[in-house]
Amino acid sequence: LEFRRVLFRSNRRMAHSPVIYPRKRVDDIARLVIVRDTSGSVGEATMAEFNGLVAAALADAAQDAVIIDCDAAIHAEHFVGPGETFPDDAKGGGGTSFIPPFERVKEWIDEGMTIAGVVYITDLDGEEPERVDVPVLWLSTTTRKASTGRTVRIVA
Question: Is 19 helix (H, G, I), strand (E, B) or coil?
Answer without folding.
Answer: coil
